[in-house]
Specification:
The radius of gyration is 34 Å and the shape is rod-shaped. The protein contains seven helices and seven strands. It folds into two domains: 251 residues, CorA soluble domain-like (Beta Polymerase, domain 2); 59 residues, Methane Monooxygenase Hydroxylase, Chain G, domain 1 (Up-down Bundle), CATH 1.20.58. It is α+β, with helices and mostly antiparallel strands and 319 residues long. 56% of the residues lie in helices and 15% in strands. The longest helix has 64 residues.
């Protein structure tokens, strides 16, 4: 899908797709491409004067975060990872996707394999104000700031989800909750790895492009937010990992308790069977031929079972 935006009177508006022709002037426009077709890639490549390989760079799920500059056209490519949610049967999982930023002399191009709420956040001014399409570097900083804030937002969602799952696990140990905890832990691994890769890209940006003096404060905020996201992801991952280990120990302990009780009950049931087997032998036995002998055997079985039960109770085998 192809979306084009331009700035008019401090407002960012969407350009009608029907007027986007080969002769359209894309100067100072923002072109966003979500899972674009080959035809759309070819059209934007020709219209904006950028190599198709640059556009396709962010369409590979395994693409690493990096900074690259085309010496022939002067186009700057910045690939960073962004957070992305995937809906499972009854919960959400979190992963990351490459997001490409391309700055040419004519326009700004962003590319992603999936539709993402990041674009709506930038257009609505949720994390930044006064989106700038005329200064490429400032737009890049605003983009990286929004990405860092998005990571923090998703990390808080993961923390709330883990708290909810823990509360459910305290009530009943179900496989669904344990699987959800495992998915959250896996999500934190993806996010933590992506944030470290983004950190390397952020360190290289000042060497690849020139910043405006008035953007220094915003750039410092980007570095702070990204560092905070890295620390939060590491803390949440350690907490979740420790919680998973604790619940694994609890489940194992509960299984041992159940097996201990079942073994004790099996022992108590075996005592009457053993006494009955002795009196059922084809040899002479005490009380043979006596009507009251049956009740004596029953009494002996009950007495021995009571003694064994008291011993097992004191030894905490029935608790």
């Amino acid at each position: 899908m192809l979306q084009v935006y331009k700035k008019i009177n401090k407002s960012t508006i969407t350009v009608d797709p029907e007027i986007l022709t080969a002769d359209y002037d894309f100067r100072d426009h923002w072109i966003h491409m979500s899972n674009p077709t080959d035809k759309e890639i070819e059209f934007i490549s020709a219209a904006a004067g950028v190599a198709e390989d640059m556009i396709k760079a962010a369409l590979d799920e395994e693409e690493r975060a990096r900074v690259e500059k085309d010496d022939d056209t002067g186009a700057l490519l910045v690939v960073t990872d962004i957070p992305f949610t995937e809906e499972e049967e009854n919960h959400y999982t979190y992963t990351t996707l490459p997001f490409g930023y391309i700055a040419t002399s004519e326009a700004i191009i962003t590319v992603c394999l999936e539709e993402t709420s990041l674009i709506d956040d930038m257009l609505s001014g949720r994390f930044i104000k006064d989106l700038n399409l005329h200064k490429r570097t400032r737009f890049l900083i605003q983009l990286e700031y929004t990405i860092s804030k998005k990571f923090l937002h998703y990390l808080k969602q993961i923390d709330r989800a883990s708290q909810r799952v823990q509360n459910e696990l305290e009530k009943s140990m179900k496989n669904s909750e344990l699987i959800e905890m495992l998915d959250l832990e896996k999500s934190l691994v993806y996010i933590s790895t992506s944030l470290r890769s983004n950190s390397v890209v952020l360190d290289r940006l000042p060497k690849s492009t020139k910043f405006y003096d008035e953007d220094e404060d915003l750039w410092e905020d980007v570095l702070i937010e990204n560092k905070q996201a890295i620390e939060m992801s590491n803390i949440y991952r350690d907490i979740l990992s420790g919680t998973m280990d604790a619940y694994a120990s609890i489940i194992s302990n509960n299984l041992n308790v159940v097996m201990k009780v079942l073994t004790s009950l099996t022992l108590l049931v075996a005592i009457p069977s053993m006494i009955g087997a002795f009196w059922g032998m084809n040899t002479g036995v005490p009380f043979e031929g006596q009507m009251w002998g049956f009740w004596v055997v029953i009494g002996i079985s009950v007495f021995v079972c009571l003694i064994a039960g008291i011993v097992l109770w004191k030894k905490r085998f029935l608790k």
